[in-house]
Structure formats: C-alpha cells, structure tokens
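User: Let's play a game. I give you a shape written as tokens, and you guess the letters that built it. Ready? Here's round one.
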C-alpha cells in the first residue's frame, strides 16, 4: 500500500515539476534492526518516482560501510538529499507528517543550488572559521519545525562548512535525551550550543557564530 495519498502525490509532483537540476536521494537503511527503515525506504522510493530528475540509491549501513563513510552516516534510517554536490543535508527518521514539507523544500533547494539568503548572511557565512554541524530536532506533528529545518538547510547550501540534519526526536529518543529536547524545534550546533524555536536567518547566523566562538 502506498504511503503517499493520491492528493499528496499530485501536489508533490506539481511542486517538483520545475526542478532545475537533478537531485539524488541516498537512503541508508538496515531493515533487520530498524523498525521504521522499511517505511522510510518506501517513502523515498515513492518520492523518487515523482520526477524524472530524481534518482534513488539505497544502502545498508552495516554492509555498505564505504558509502556510509562517504556520506558521513552513522544512524538509520537516514536520507541524504544530494544535488550537483553534497551539501550535507540529511533526514534522520521518516520524513512524514509536517516533515514531508521539509523534504520537498530540501529537494527544491538543492535542485536550484541557491540558498536565497540575504547578502549580509552570505558574507558572514563566508567568514566561518570552522565546520558547523546543525541538528534540528523535530516531531512529525510540529507545524513550526519545517521553517527551522529550511533555514538550516539554506545555510548548508550556501556554505561548504555547514551541514544540516533534521532529527525526529521521537524516533531517536536517546539523542533527544542527550540534548535535553523538551520542545521543538530545537536546534543543536556542533553538539554543544542549542536554542529552541523557529528563528529567522539573522538569528541563526548569530547562533552559529556563538557556537564557533565558544
């Protein structure tokens, strides 16, 4: 049985109909160990069928270790959204519910290759002094989470130093506990600096700069 309803599929096809450039979805799974991996893989397959400019590669985390290393993946299910280059955009968990919007936004963003950020934000990102790992903790029922995830993904498209992961806090409770996720969206930068809420790009670049100066 398909995961996407006909109405959602039609809307998604329309949204992706004007993709400028191809996008590759890279799925990491391990079905014998992961209770949601099958659902995540099926959703990835259905999404890949929405456009001739989408392609899907599927790997087993434990078997395809070189690919896991190449994409810096250490948890399943993980979906990587890759354009002409890998911007480090990842989805940890099943991108369903409101996070299906995040996935569609990420595909369009990566396909276009333009972050759309303001000149000042771009300039500040160009001066980053070290790598920036952004984890946006979400739930599938949170209407505010896609906006925060998108801001982080825009930063990742703009700067090679930035990577952006969307993490389903319900699916990865050990990570939610580790980072004390009490409300979503919660953003964790470089595993040490965090804040709650959906914020504009000006605030996010400030938080990135704080994390690097700590």
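Assistant: Ready! My guess for every position:
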């Amino acid at each position: 049985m398909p995961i996407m309803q006909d109405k959602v599929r039609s809307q998604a096809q329309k949204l992706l109909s004007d993709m400028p450039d191809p996008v590759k979805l890279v799925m990491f799974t391990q079905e014998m160990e992961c209770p949601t991996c099958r659902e995540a893989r099926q959703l990835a397959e259905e999404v890949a069928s929405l456009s001739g400019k989408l392609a899907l590669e599927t790997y087993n985390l434990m078997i395809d270790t070189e690919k896991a290393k190449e994409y810096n993946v250490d948890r399943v299910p993980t979906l990587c959204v890759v354009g002409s280059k890998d911007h480090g955009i990842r989805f940890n968990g099943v991108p369903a519910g409101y996070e299906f919007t995040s996935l569609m936004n990420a595909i369009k963003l990566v396909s276009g290759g333009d972050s759309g950020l303001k000149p000042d934000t771009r300039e500040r990102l160009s001066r980053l002094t070290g790598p920036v790992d952004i984890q946006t903790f979400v739930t599938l029922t949170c209407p505010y989470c896609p906006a925060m995830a998108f801001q982080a993904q825009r930063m990742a498209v703009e700067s090679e130093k930035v990577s952006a992961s969307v993490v389903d806090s319900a699916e990865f409770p050990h990570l939610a506990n580790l980072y004390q996720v009490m409300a979503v969206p919660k953003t964790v930068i470089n595993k040490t600096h965090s804040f709650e809420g959906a914020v504009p790009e000006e605030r996010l670049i400030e938080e990135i700069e704080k994390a690097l100066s700590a």
